[in-house]
Write a structure and sequence with these properties.
- The chain has helices at 15-23, 38-48, 57-63, 78-87, 102-114, 129-139, 159-162, 173-189, 288-291, 294-305, 315-334, and strands at residues 4-9, 28-34, 52-54, 68-71, 92-95, 119-122, 146-154, 192-200, 211-218, 223-229, 244-249, 252-257, 261-266, 269-274, 338-339.
- The chain is of the alpha/beta class.
- It has two domains: 4-122, NAD(P)-binding Rossmann-like Domain (Rossmann fold); 126-279 and 315-339, Dihydrodipicolinate Reductase, domain 2.
- The strands form two sheets. The protein has a nine-stranded mixed β-sheet.
- Helix 4 packs parallel to helix 5 (102-114).
- The radius of gyration is 20 Å and the shape is globular.
- The relative contact order is 0.16.
- The structure holds (2S)-2,3-dihydroxy-3-methylbutanoic acid.
- The site of (2S)-2,3-dihydroxy-3-methylbutanoic acid has 7 residues, from helix 8.
Length: 342
Amino acid sequence: MKNLRFAIFGTGFWSRYQLAAWREVKGATCVALYNRTRAKAEGLGREFGVNAIYDDPAELLRREKLDFVDIITDVASHAPLTQLAAKSGVPVICQKPMATSLREAESMVRFCADRHVPFFVHENFRWQTPIRALDVELKRGAIGKPFRARIDFISGFPVFENQPFLADLEQFILTDVGSHALDVARFLFGEAKSVCCHTQRVHKNIKGEDVATVMLEMVNGMTVTVNLAYAGNALEREAFPETLIFVEGENGSAELVPGCELRVTTRAGTQSQKVPPPSFSWADPRYAVVHSSIVPCHKNLLRALQGRGPAETTAADNLRTVRLVFAAYQSAASGRTVPIKN
Ligand code: 89V
């Protein structure tokens, strides 16, 4: 199996974990780092033994022989950096959210497709251990045919302390966590045919919405509600950064509850299993369930880059998630339900 050489574009808060997670995956080596502020890239390079440091992405692409780039920059630079790499014929992995608008995401996908450049989105929530365990139970028919589900990411965690740029986003929770949660909805329950959404802002010192309530009518007939909040309030069940999910089926119900516990209830009673993420020394324990999911996400993308099978989160697939995010904004602004063309 060929060992792939890659570069990371962007060396902010998230890159350290992404780079550490790449080390868990055999078959890919980071050979270069780019960051606008060179000193930041040098710091990460020293920590991880990466010596080729650039503050110009075009120069990096000219000089380094790469099999792919992993883009972990702010969302506004995803499109130009993706296009830059694709022009050099270098496959791209781009962090979620893919783009600042649906139109921009569509043009990125088209740009790469026209050049036959593989393009993937790093979307890791669907790879979390509890969510995979829930999927297994649903697929084996543990609760019969599901008819309704609730996906909750409701937290008072001071997320702006680690990621201050989030406070400046005009569109915040739906693009940040909503991208993840709506992708989880698609992963578990398939495509949506309409979206209805209401948003609120509770924090006074941020630009975007920090609360969103989304109702999806699914193609399979299910109703899925997605409740998102980073309101900074105190909660009895503070579960950051776990996604709590409750699914009602014709024969029972299944629930992911705080503490990575999966509870399945049928007429025979309730069965509980602990579904904790694998532990990695480099993961921040406060983010364990998310950080650990970076590893299987990388593995799945690498498999595709090595031509060993399809990836789940191709950019073309992720466009469907992006469509839901922006349909939610459209619904919140208009007060109307927005139909989704599949
Ligand atoms: O993965 C993310 O998008 C982070 C979170 C804190 C949710 O893990 O913002």
